[in-house]
Amino acid sequence: FGSLNLLKTLFTSAFGDAFVPYSWFNANSSVA
Fold it and tell me: What is the pTM of this model?
């Protein structure tokens, strides 16, 4: 699921930079 989260983060990045930090943190939490 790590790759899926990464893709989601990239997709969100294209949508809004403001949401990037949250998604990245969420993905990091999942991986950790």
Answer: 0.32
